[in-house]
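Internal ticket #5521
Category: modeling
Description: The requester needs a full-assembly model to guide mutagenesis choices. All entity lines are attached below as received. Residue total reported by intake: 433.
Assigned to: D.W.
Attached entities:
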Amino acid sequence: MNPPLRHAAGLTPRWLALSLLCLALVFVDDRYAVLDGVRSGAERLLIEPLRAAAAWPGRLLGAAGEALAERRRLLAENARLRAENLRLRARLLEMAALEAENARLRALLAAAERLGKRVRVAEVLAVRQDYQHQQLVIDKGAADGVHVGQAVLDAEGVMGQVIGVADHSATVLLISDPEHRIPVQNIRNGVRSLAQGKGDPRELDLLYVTPHTDLRPGDLLVTSGLGGRFPANYPVARVDRFEAVPGDPYARVTARPLAGLDRSREVILVWPETRR
Amino acid sequence: MNTPAGRILRLHGSLLLALLLTLTPLPGSGLGMWPEWPALVLAWWCAHHPGRVGLGTALAWGLLLDLALGTLLGQHALGLLWIAYVVLRQHSRFRLYPLLQQALVVAALVAVERLVFLWLYGIADRPVQQLGPYALPVLSSALVWPLIDGSLRRWTR
């Protein structure tokens, strides 16, 4: 019934040749940027529709659930209020941080810079969260003014930053990705550190913390604004464990992210305020 | 529908479905244990229609998978090539195995594939942190093999 195997004799050499080709591709893709153009082209033409199709069943389920409720108007209003609520809660978080900062710095800082940043709510289309990657795809893209490097939050804290943009979607690297580091600051005393992801949405590592640093479990870490990627003073994580290891110049410190990295279905995009 | 064109349609249709399943968002961190759908579907086709599926199919879908998942270009292609190669070589023997044994073979193939990935991640300076959870897809892939076998059999009859 089955036709005989094509090229049965040449299978092994062909396999070896193709595997070597793939290895070469992996190498080139890892070390050089030449394939990035191919990637973004394919993203636009192929992958974006695929992702949209893959997100469809979930949307359908969501839509079916909503259809059960009677009044469409109520739903629309509800959705609008929820978006509004999310936006306001993000502002509130910022206010708490600002207050603490004010208490610490008294009148040293001309603190009227922030507030009134432009924000927008986006929906999560797809997630890629395994031990290698912690990424999200959201439903806003270049057409909505999203750009690479942009900060992404949820109602609880910082989620991550945009690393890839297509027309109507964007890829977000979460702060829990092993390749992501975010500069943070202890709100209690201003101690700075770097929080690195480790592939776990519930835990971050704090890097380069000496054993004598004044960090305690429960301390709130906010973005320090250093590096210019993230706006300052957004909550990132709470210190979880502080463990000095004899013989090791740095202490082992872990923190628990405040944002629902593995839960949030809606995220907030922040545009830095343009100076006039 | 049992024309050559129909079969090609079914082959690539099922692979497309597998790709979409891979991309489907799961709640929480459930994605870590998601089976390797494309690898399973490809293995089934290699075992049952070795004349129609070749290494070229594996390469093309592997590259597409890499683009879709944002992994290193060629990584999944390498993995799928490996699975297609072994199953194509042993297709007649593989088909004679009882379903349980087939699932075990599939688990072993996926395990080797993920070991290769591990090695590539090491080269690319992104070492895997927790090996236990990393091995979960091996188990889940074996568990869904009967499902894949049953549905593809029905679909291609």
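Resolution: model delivered.
Comment from assignee: Chain B has one domain: 4-24+34-156.
Ticket closed.
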